[in-house]
Predict the structure.
Amino acid sequence: MVEVPGSMGTSASLSLRLGQTLLAFGALLFMTIGVRFYQFTAFCYLVTIMALTIPWNLTLAMVDIYCIFLNQPFQKPRIVLAISIGDWVVSVLALASASSAASVVDLLRSNESVCPPIICNRYQFAATLAFLTWFLSLSSSLLNFWLLPSL
């Protein structure tokens, strides 16, 4: 089997998973600091997707830790396919939520009476963290798809 950096059961995959978890947690934290995020559907969507991303990535990080401790690569093709598809779905949802939140922030910035600059900056930072989460999630998905033919 070819060792693909970043594929399931490697330390690079573990770092990708932990990075996704931390970025999603940061986006969730910065979005919920503002007490008015629930007034906008795009912000609620971002909170929901980031809240779903955290347990998905923590679970897969535990699988990575288990494989690293056993020093065994993850060699189950059907499970790797399911994980790759799950990563792809999570990455598409993260991109959609980050894009919608960023567009709402851009729209709100035009009227300071609706969104004060401090709160809008928090929302914008949360959207930025969601975009970074998407990037890491897409990387995980593509690396696991790359691993599939060698299993």
